[in-house]
Amino acid sequence: MDPAEELPSMLWGLDPIFSAFARLHVTDILHMRESCQVPDIYFYKSHPIHKVDVLGTVVYKREREDFFCYGDDGTGVINCLCWKNDPMKEELDSDGGKPSDDLQHSFNLAVEVKKLKQAQQTHFRLEIGELLRVRGQVKTSRQQREMMASTYYKVNDPVMAVQIEWMSDVLQLYREFYDKPLHLQNISASESPITSLSKATQIIKDFLEQKAVSKFRPYDIQDILQPLFPSCPEVAPAGQEPVAGSSTCQQLHVLLKEALQLLQDEGVVYRKVKSQDEVYFVTAQDKDLLMAVKDIIREDSKREKYQEKGCHILHILSSVRQRHSMNVSKAVLELVLKSLECNSDIISTRDNYFTYFII
Length: 359
Fold this sequence. Notes:
Strand 4 (51-63) and strand 5 (67-73) form a beta hairpin. 37% of the residues lie in helices and 21% in strands. Helix 6 (193-211) crosses helix 8 (247-266) and helix 9 (287-300) crosses helix 12. It is α+β, with helices and mostly antiparallel strands. The strands form 4 sheets. It has a 5-stranded mixed β-barrel with strand order 4-5-6-8-7. The radius of gyration is 31 Å and the shape is flat.
């Protein structure tokens, strides 16, 4: 990233990564470019970062009166400066707070507090080879990048389950957020296509719900989007061409098509049969679909294979496609299952497993 293209500091708060503890690899923390506007702010690609969250192995340890200094080894090595709090500075008696003979069978507040402090010291004192999680700010001291920990603790991970889950989450964060460029939309600009699509989709949803529409064709509902395009003349009847030279009307048709596709992706509507005659069925109002799903679950729940756990959603989807329509998507089925469960027609035994409700 060219320093001349660095995002102005007044806009950093618009990037959600700036307010979070970024889970970055140590090697990326060490190589981030420092901001030329504000010290101790760094850029990973186009994202401003000043707080990080790291999980790694202690490779060296140095302890002083007021702080620990751990070496954290993952994809690289970075100094983690962990300040001691007051309980950590206190020296405990070597006897570990052993109660007297008279109080062995009674509660001793002083002894219990001492035990608690010992447990806290044990939890925060790490040795080489132990797993450490650190959250804190990134600093550059004496030309060396390091972390000033605000929170740190030892992680017990004997079978490496925590580390495997951590690395999987970090890779996903890189793919979905960190490696994607930051795009800030101009709020004062004219309405974007995304906003228009969102409005059109909501208008169609409200219309279908209010009118309890079970099925429709695109030209049946396109006039309800007319307010979004005031300059567009009246919509031509079915089978007729719209007024020539009206680019606004063409935009309306494109917007309608995109809104219907979005509604299909969400499962709100679907096409039972894909043909030139575009007929859309409204999922919530399709009684035949709801009955088909209910019958499949009721019948298959009686089979020995599904009596204990119920029917998995993918099994139900396959059966619905064979019995009702090949164009039923998983999103459509999820809405149907949610409706049936709300009406107590079926119950979910676990995630994505359903069985018939028997009184």
